[in-house]
Structures are given as structure tokens and as C-alpha cells.
Amino acid sequence: MTEKEVTEIRRHFPILERKVGGRRLVYLDNTATSQTPDSVVEAVVNGYTRTKANVHRGVHTLSQEATDLQEETRRRVRDHINARSEREIIFTRGTTDSINLVASSFGRRFRDGDEIILTVMEHHANIVPWQLIRSRTDVKLRVVDINERGELDLDQYRSLFNERTVMAAFCHVSNVLGTVNPVKEMTAIAHSHGVPVLVDGAQASPHLHIDVQDIDCDFYVFSSHKMYGPTGIGVLYGRESLLEEMPPYQGGGEMISHVTFEHTTYAELPFKFEAGTPDFVGIGAFVKALDFLRDTGLDNIEAHEEELLRYATKRLEAIPGMRIFGTAPCKSAVISFLVNDIHPYDLGMLLDKMGIAVRTGHHCAQPLMERLGIPGTVRASFAVYNTREEVNAFISALDRVLPILRG
Ligand code: PLP
Hints:
Helices cover 39% and strands 17% of the residues. The chain is of the alpha/beta class. It folds into 2 domains: 3-30 and 297-406, Alpha-Beta Complex (Aspartate Aminotransferase, domain 1); 41-294, 3-Layer(aba) Sandwich (Aspartate Aminotransferase, domain 2), CATH 3.40.640.10. Pyridoxal-5'-phosphate is lined by residues 32, 94-96, 123, 125-126, 171, 175, 200, 202-203, 223.
């Protein structure tokens, strides 16, 4: 993308004009959440000021308009990830909620001694929900390791499957290492053993084309707030035949067909899994984030971020004492690093004083930190609106703060 095109994109993100520490904000925490373009903000405002009425319940105009907006988003999400049907698109509160839904509902079929394959690079959201099953059923977690570049050991992955394996769940892109995993190949391996697959797409969906039919996974989950969309909304894609068999996750309004005190029948898909009032204003506005991704072009986004990743990596590698975690050739625009034995929090705090927003800590991946033998990292992550000048500002700030911290 040209500088002019990026400048034009930035005009739609007023928050990027903010000052922090007396300087223009340099926002490099996009892995945690990305900023929101004005088209999405306007859609939220419109949702509250023009069409706010509860969905699926009313015959009046506002309720029908609100319902239409929500269902339009469902169609657009289906197109965006190439699902077969809107029945396969469930709105949730986010990636975490989507995984909890699958673990809680699909997990009902697991039996004592069954095994779930995860990887060492998983976010806590793709670890803890599987552990919660243990309060009911004694499932075992089998964990795939990484090599020194932060890539999964596929031979080990293959070897973990046996007759007790009931699920494989792994991230498409690591939120710490940036590694893009070969999810299509991994899904084919699992399916050759008759094992269903959940892909955590939280870090892939803002950057990559997602085609759930091509991957052939059984579940794919992601969050709107990392895709330039509103907070508090997520998606669970599920293969229709599996969703049909799964029991509801939560009970309440919207998810029923008929209720008596003796017995309840449930609504059709996807509503069976959407109990209660959803964030329909946010869901309606999410369409504008999908428009933004489509109009900007995921290929353009990927190419621009890749260029920033290469440039920033080269500049960081020139800093003495620099250790970068995650150097896979197939990598998304996130750089986790440590410098000498400087504590990540100290570095993050001083960078913040200079207007640079990076994330520090374990990034909700404590088992990965343990595997790497470190307490945490500093993490800089890029989005389509970031620029080379911002990378330069980030490196200049490091050049100023590192001598202070080295003492
Ligand atoms: N999975 C991965 C790989 C993530 O990076 C994150 C958030 O950073 C999540 C899951 C959880 O997403 P959310 O907090 O939106 O539910």
C-alpha cells in the first residue's frame, strides 16, 4: 500500500491523533485489540439513535430494522469466511465465549480417559475451557511442542493421535510468536483419525483470508474487536451437522421453540445457541468492520503488515542484547522480545511515557512463557494503519530508554 493510501486510512481512525505523554500516540498493541474506524462508530451511534429495539421479538418497524441489521451481519460473516450456511454462524461475546460454548456443549460427549490435543502456544482461552470439562469428565490434555523458531512440531502432533483422541484445538496464528500454523494440513491429519478440529482464529481473522470450507475445520472462532469492529461480539462457526447434534449451551429467551414447565423444545440453528438478548447494536455495526476489511483488501492489509514486520524486525535485531521470540518464516505482524535482562514492565512503562503503546507480560499464554523459560515479553503488533514512521518512533524511543534501564 502507498503512504498516501495509509494516510487516507488513518483519517478514519480519530484515536490515532491522540497524544500520550505529550506525543502523538503510536499504537502497537493491535494483537490485544485494534482501533475502530469512524464508519463502525457511526453505525453504533445509529444503532442507538435510530433503530434500537430488541431483535426477533417485535412486529414493529424498529424491531424489524434491528433484526434485519443483525441478520445482514450474519450473511456477511458467512460470506467472509465462506461458510455453507447462515445456520453455521453463531453470535457470541467473543473468541473466549465461543470456545467455552464448544467445550461445554460438544464436550458433553467426552468420556473419562478421552484425550484433547492442544499446542503449547495456546492462549488461555483455548486451554482453560477444556480443563473445565474435568469437573464432569476426566479428560486428558496432550500438548504439541514448538521448535526454536516457534513452529509446531508436526511429527509430534501426528504421533499424539490415538483411539482416545476426541478433539484437536489449536490457534491459526499465535498471539505471542506470530507463527501462522498450517491449519489445513493439521485438520486433515486430525480428520484422518476421525477427530474433529477447533481453530482459534482470534489472531488470523484481522489479517488473513479465512475459508472454513477450504480448511475443512469443524469449528472456527474469532472476535470482532480485533477486526476493527465493536467490542463484546464474537463468532462461532460450526459445521451444521455437529451443531445440530450439540445440546444448547445456555437456556433462556430466543433459543426456544416451545416452553412448558415439563418440557422445552429448542429453536432452529443458529438461534438454539443464542440465548438472551445479544449485543444487537454491536452485531449490526460489525458489518461496517467487514466492509472496511473488504474495501481495504485483506491482501493489501497482509502485504502492508508484512512489510512493517520485516522492517521492524530488522531494526530491532540491530539492538544489542535483543532476543526475539518467534522467528517462523510464515509469521504474522507481531514481535515479542526481551532486551538483556530488562523486565518487560519497566520497558513498557517507559515506552508509554513516550507515547508508544506496547503490551507487556505473559499475554495470556503462561504455559508458553514457561516453555520459553521467561516471565513475559514486550510485544509490538501492527495493523493496517501503522506506518514506517511509527516503527522509527518506536525504535528511537527504545534507543532512549534502554540506556536508562541498562543503568
Ligand atoms: N485466542 C487468541 C489467540 C487470542 O489472541 C485471544 C485474545 O487476545 C483470545 C483467544 C481471546 O479473545 P477474546 O478476549 O476476544 O475472547
